[in-house]
Structures are given as C-alpha cells and as structure tokens.
C-alpha cells in the first residue's frame, strides 16, 4: 500500500514582462508570456511507513515538489494520489495569521490540518510545551523571530498525529537545541511507521533518516534510490562543479620523451574488470603501463597522487618515499600499486600517476585518470573513514 503516488507530474509558470500582457493575451488570443518549467515528468511511489529524502541545488524544484504534494500548488500535468492526513512544515509563516497570538494560531493552523476544536484543546498543552514558547504564546505572531515561528509550526505539524509528514528546509532556521528535539521527534515518527518526506541540505540527516532519496536537478528527477548511493552521486556532482578546467591525460608540466605512461587501469583485487565507481574499504589494484622511446633506458621514481577535482591533494604514494631504489624504465613495462583498504568516503576523486627523476625534482611524465565516484555508507564528515573501536 502506498501513501503517495506521483505520476509524470509537471509544473509550468507563465512569466509576463508587464501586467498589461495578461490582458493583451486574453483580448488578442495570442501568447504574450514566456513559459518557465519548474518541474517536468517527475514520478515516484512512496509506500506507507517509508521515509523519502529530497536533495538538490537551490532552484532544483524541491520546494515546488513539496508544495504540489501538500496541495498548495496544482500540477500543470500528471497526477498525485495521497492517502491519509498530511501535515507540512514549508515556508515560514505558512498557515499563520500575523495579527493573532501564538495560541490563536494553534487553533487556526490545527483546524486547517483537520482537527476539531475539542481535539485541539486536548493537544494544546503538549504543543506549547514542545515549542517552549510558554512565555510568548499569547503575543502576536508578528512579534516572533523566525526561530520562534519554526518552533510553533513544527510543534503543531507533529502534534496532530498526521499519516504523512512533509518537512522543508525550514528546520535550518531553528537553534541547535530545538533541531535536536525535532530530529528526535522525527525518529519517533519513523519508529511508529509514519510516512515522511524530508527536504534538507543536511546530507547527514537525509542519510540517517531516509530509506530512499530523490535528487532533483532543474526540475527533473536525476536519480532515485538508496540514500547512500544517491548522496554519493550528488556529492560527486558537487565536486565536479568545482573542478578546475583540466583535461584527461593532459600534457605534463615538464615533459621529457624518454618514458611515457601509456595506460592506467584500476581494478579490485580479483583484477576481473576495470572499475567505474569505487567503494569505501574496497581492495584496489592500480596497474600502470609505461613505455620508453625506442630502446632508451632511464631511471626514476613512480608516484600515485589521489586528489579532488579542485586539485586538493588527499594522498600520495611514491617509490622514493617508500624507501625503494630508483626504478629502471626500459621498453614496455607494467607496475602495480595495491591499496588493501580504500578508506575515502563519498565524493569525487582523481588519480594522477607521475614518473619523476631520481631526485623527484622533475616530472618526466604525468597521467590523469577519469574522475571516480566513491560510494560509501559512512557519514560524509571529513574525507576518510578509519577503523576504530570504542572501549566502554
């Protein structure tokens, strides 16, 4: 049984340069507007008791989707089917009257969510207690700060016992203490099998709370799936946006023709096939192919650099710093570096393979691999995940 079903939903807006253009369009029956596609052909099914995260850049269509689901907006095309009572926390002040007091707005907002006056009266003490606004509850809402707005709105939305709870990024306005209370209440909802849609820029919260996640981009659904996988892909996308303009296999800064890196293949320990994505704690084998010009022979050191697309160096391994003697490069050769436990977490990374002279002061050749997306189930804090053990 599903709680929400979205079928090919699109939302368009007509943009007019001047208010008069609306009238001209009616009179002359010809378009005087431009069409803005806020959402296009979005489809998904959310089962009852499921928790779905929504991520994406600003302007990706996240708020539009949530407003369509709550009924604040109507789709231009497609269908949305919902089962059960919906409570939503969207933009600040939604459902509140600024001239009424906090207490009066509890009755107004809760009645809009479908509660009777008697039900509201029973839940009023809990709503006020959770919001921690006892001192301000009889003051006009227009005197509240944005954080106080969120406290009251979240308290009402979660106290009406909804079947479906929809939360936008509004929680980011609250202080750390109240955010913690909100997360704890959402975890309680999760334990009681409630259906939740959670939109946030906090990828950690999305990963911890949500079973599945939707990634929206320019109003389209770019990816949907398990939260860890989608978030890893999204983080790689963000890294790619910051990438400096470099080309794969770009020419080295100091190029000498005596020896070249002809190919680099990254596989797992079985060497069965080249990897397209990497997984945290995977065993990696980096195979490097070199070739010298004619029968030329030279000596130097090999190095492997792992960096981010913006050039930030994460890790370096070299034959020199592993106290190995200079290597002799002659004709066609193959070299391998084994990484038993690749510990980097979600993100986008690149491997740079270098050949340097014996003193490692001059690069003879340099090879840039493609960018690799790392898929990880671990939080995105930091760059790596180290084995550790709590002794309690």
Structure description:
This protein has 392 residues and is an alpha/beta fold. It folds into 2 domains: 240 residues, P-loop containing nucleotide triphosphate hydrolases (Rossmann fold); 117 residues, Distorted Sandwich (Coagulation Factor XIII, Chain A, domain 1). It has a 6-stranded mixed sheet with strand order 5-6-7-3-8-9, sandwiched between helices. Strands 11, 13, 14, 15, 17 and 18 form a 6-stranded mixed sheet that branches. A 3-stranded antiparallel sheet has the order 2-1-4, covered by helices on one side. A hairpin with a 2-residue loop joins strand 8 and strand 9. About 3% of the residues have low confidence.
Highlighted features:
392 residues, alpha/beta, Rossmann fold, Coagulation Factor XIII, Chain A, domain 1, 2 domains, six-stranded mixed beta sheet, 8 helices, 18 strands, 24% helix, elongated
Helix content: 10-25%
Oligomerization:
single chain
Pairing-aware structural class of the strands and helices? alpha/beta
Radius of gyration: 28 Å
CATH architecture of the largest domain: 3-Layer(aba) Sandwich
